[in-house]
Amino acid sequence: MVKLSVVVPFFNVQTYAPDTLRSLRANAREDFEFILVDDCSSDGTPELLERAARELPGAVVLRHEQNGGLATARNTGLDAAHGEYLTFLDGDDWLAPGHYARVLAAIEALGCDFVRTDHVQCTARARTVHRVPHGLQGEVSSPRDAILPADRSTSVDYPYAWAGVYHRRLADRGLLHFTDGLRTAEDRPWIWRLHREAETFAAVGLPGIFYRRGVATSLTQIGDVRQLDFIRAFDQVLEETARDRDAETLLPKAVRTYCAIISHHVGSAERFEPAVARKLRSMSAAALKRMPQNVLDDALDSMDVRRAARLRRLRRRPVAAGVAA
After folding, report:
1. Which of 34, 65, 259, 287 has CA atoms 20 to 30 A from the CA of 28?
2. Pairing mode, strands 85-88 and 164-167
3. pLDDT above 60: residue 135
């Protein structure tokens, strides 16, 4: 029986994939499987994965004939997974030796639906530990109760799918799949759904994942139209949260977070191509008008002056008919 399935999408990461694959080997166990999904790479990544299929214990290589993006690649891996527990890794990140065994031992001891772990962010030679924003460590809690308060960072704002391990019962309930086709912010609707609908979780520390920032091929570094998928992702968060039994309580958090992300992107619009920057402003203005206006008023009143002013200017901006995410 497979105890843990690790889903790892790869796309044009030949420079970094060797580190990723070496770290998987240092985590291999006879009851672990590694599902390596090549999302139609055009560099040397497929050859690296072919070698891994021969040399990495538990490796299974799947290939997309067309590039589908991270969300779709993760879904491909999930559909092929057999493990009692599941987790994710990105093809340009890496792990400390034995990390998965330690996290697996933690979730089995706690008996909860999922655990969240700290991670190490790596930018050039700098290393920074990022903690799960949840005060209780090693104690089982309700993920729904961990969404609030609206004006502080909570575990729902720590969206990284790879920073945790998840019991298969969540996949059986449809809670682990991502929205197909989302190119960025694919983990935002995912983490919100997980917190609203799973029953138990715990934060366990264990910072054994090394998250590589500043990779030139990452969409976070590319200022093209795919970046604007964050609007579609957060529209989904709002729509699903509005249908929740606790919508009145949870919507202020969702709206405030959406506003903060819009302000961040608009505030750094110079990194986008000019046409994309114009579209960003137009789509962001339309998004503000779609939000529940009374909740938006309260969110803007609670934000710092600079961000609130930026968003109020956007809110006053005329929106052409047909502008949508």
Report:
1. 65
2. antiparallel
3. yes
